[in-house]
What does this fold into?
Amino acid sequence: NSDDVDQVNYKTLSRFVMANTADQELTILMGAIALACKATARACRKAGIANLFGLAGEQNTSGDDQKKLDVLSNDIFVNALLNCHACAVLVSEENEDPIIVPPSMQGKYCVAFDPLDGSSNIDCNVSTGTIFGVYEKTIPGPGTVDDILRKGKDLVVAGYCMYGAATELVICFQGRGVHRFALDPSIGEFIHTHANVKFPADGGKKIYSANEGNSGLWDEPCQRAVAHFKSGDKPYALRYVGSMVSDVHRTLLYGGVFIYPADKKSPGGKLRVLYEGFPMAMIVEAAGGVASTGLFNGKIHRMMDLEPKGVHERCPVILGSERDVNLVLGFYDTAA
Ligand code: AHG
Ligand code: MN
Ligand code: MN
Ligand code: MN
It folds into this structure.
């Protein structure tokens, strides 16, 4: 029966990667990313036992208080990516400057990553994740920041790993759809469980996801959009985990909209373009959804069109099913 097939014919991540690229360096890179995700999943699982809760005592460039697991997961990713000989430039939420891989270990990929997303949720055992985006270096010679300060649409791979009840990896190779993998801890492999994931055709469940604690600081169109979600006798449900990976994963699978708007205290919003906005936008678009910045620097931008000038630059985020993102954007049109 089907179980037997699954016990002798493992649809692993590396098998999927080899079937979807002829580039050995990309195959090696994805192996390094998978290793780092597995090691980070293990660190999250043992955090309570290994005294890995709490703060590391430093702040990162974004001004976040680094948690011990922010630093540990960052070390895991930096070591895995430096030593796989497939990378030229690394950008991490937890490193102020890009890491330039020494020429002796340099490869052709540039990886921007958020090693632990939603890290404020670690100490209370609420799901967290990792987010990553991969560019292919186009400028010959040693890596520079210009190899990674690129538009979202230049990404060749986007992905996230969610450390939840299951450890789930979601990956999109440019132009090849969105694929889900679940970690089978008994063999330490990510198994391909769902191919070509798409948003529900009708926009899916009526769910909106936002930190409404900030709503008094949002711009007026955003306030009216959320008021609309709450109106009538069949209002939208509010679901907000506070880890982007978890909120985006639920939005991708169930439908609805996730918004992290700009507000009076942070005009660019909170989420960082290179390692939060872009990878999620690529995945959302490949699944048939929409990823917008909403009104940002006087215009409404498709997220993937942004060209960041700094590796920790932020942007507002409105992403999800076409039905619901367009509903929010409609309040900007009438305001304009
Ligand atoms: P990180 O933990 O990598 O710094 O990211 C946290 C982000 C994102 O995961 C989440 O959507 C957002 O912060 C939540 O922000 P609020 O706590 O302001 O709602
Ligand atoms: Mn952070
Ligand atoms: Mn994050
Ligand atoms: Mn983070």
About this structure: The helical segments are 2-8, 13-20, 24-46, 68-82, 220-229, 244-254, 273-286, 322-335. Residues 72 and 283 are 26 Å apart (CA to CA). Residues 64, 93, 114, 117-120, 211, 242-244, 247, 260, 270 surround AHG (ligand 1) (CB under 6 Å). The longest strand covers residues 109-117.
